[in-house]
Specification:
The complex is a heterodimer of chains A (108) and B (122).
Chain A: E1 9-12, E2 18-23, E3 33-37, E4 44-47, E5 61-66, E6 69-74, E7 83-90, E8 97-99, E9 103-107
Parallel strand pairs in A: 1-9
Antiparallel strand pairs in A: 2-6, 3-4, 3-7, 5-6, 7-8, 7-9
Chain B: E1 3-7, E2 11-12, E3 18-25, E4 34-39, E5 45-51, E6 58-60, E7 68-73, E8 78-83, E9 92-99, E10 109-112, E11 116-120
Parallel strand pairs in B: 2-11
Antiparallel strand pairs in B: 1-3, 3-8, 4-5, 4-9, 5-6, 7-8, 9-10, 9-11
Classes of the chains: A mainly beta (108), B mainly beta (122).
Chain lengths: 108, 122
């Protein structure tokens, strides 16, 4: 089955840029979606189809996808961005919906 | 406003059975595929199962195949997950989630419920 690899943690100072990667074999050929999950809350979609933002998500959130790596970029990071972030794809294999292991974003 | 409200989570013994429900409102339920996603305590998201808008197609994670059954009742705007032969590793918060586009089972999740907790323990 398809595997998505995320770093367990990323730390960034307020006002700086955070980049969270999601690695997968030829992931650039798939559509990648990103979810933010704060403690005790359900996941919330922050990026879909690699780089589209749902309404209500700040422009500081952006995404890209090429080759074997997709990236979620958060510019001008704020304390409120501290959360777990998960990438997700659809794959035509035994488990068609695949999540990355998640990345905990810490704002220093 | 879209709402997804899960229920049915309890403490159950290993080998036991349980049925989870998800009540949907705020959208045309029978236009959309629905999923169950779970999250073990302190762990990441794990996809469990998917059902098409009409119930005609279902998919399962290998970890639950043969033990769980997803179903829906479009007349009641409800999604279900029948869980049999439960194991300790099935302990998790179970979310129902709606896909964004009508009639597209592969789409991303635009709404999630708040989850219902299933604990498998003797």
């Amino acid at each position: 089955s398809y595997v998505l690899t995320q770093p367990p943690s990323v730390s960034v100072a307020p006002g700086k840029t955070a980049r969270i990667t999601c690695g997968g074999n030829n992931i650039g050929s798939k559509s990648v979606h990103w979810y933010q999950q704060k403690p005790g809350q359900a996941p919330v979609l922050v990026i879909y189809y690699d780089s589209d933002r749902p309404s209500g998500i700040p422009e500081r959130f952006s995404g890209s996808n090429s080759g074997n790596t997709a990236t979620l970029t958060i510019s001008r990071v704020e304390a409120g961005d501290e959360a777990d972030y998960y990438c997700q794809v659809w794959d035509s294999s035994s488990d068609p919906v695949v999540f990355g292991g998640g990345t905990k974003l810490t704002v220093l | 406003e879209v709402q997804l409200v899960e229920s049915g989570g309890v403490v159950v013994q290993p080998g036991g059975s349980l049925r989870l429900s998800c009540a949907a409102s705020g959208f045309t339920f029978d236009d959309y595929a629905m999923h169950w996603v779970r999250q073990a305590p302190g762990k990441g998201l794990e996809w469990v199962s998917l059902i098409s808008w009409d119930g005609g197609s279902t998919y399962y994670a290998d970890s639950v195949k043969g033990r769980f059954t997803i179903s829906r009742d479009n007349s009641k705007n409800s999604l279900y997950l029948q869980m049999n032969s439960l194991r300790a590793e099935d302990t998790a918060l179970y979310y129902c989630a709606k896909v964004a586009s009508p009639a597209d089972i592969r789409d991303y999740f635009d709404y999630w419920g708040q989850g219902t907790l299933v604990t498998v323990s003797s």
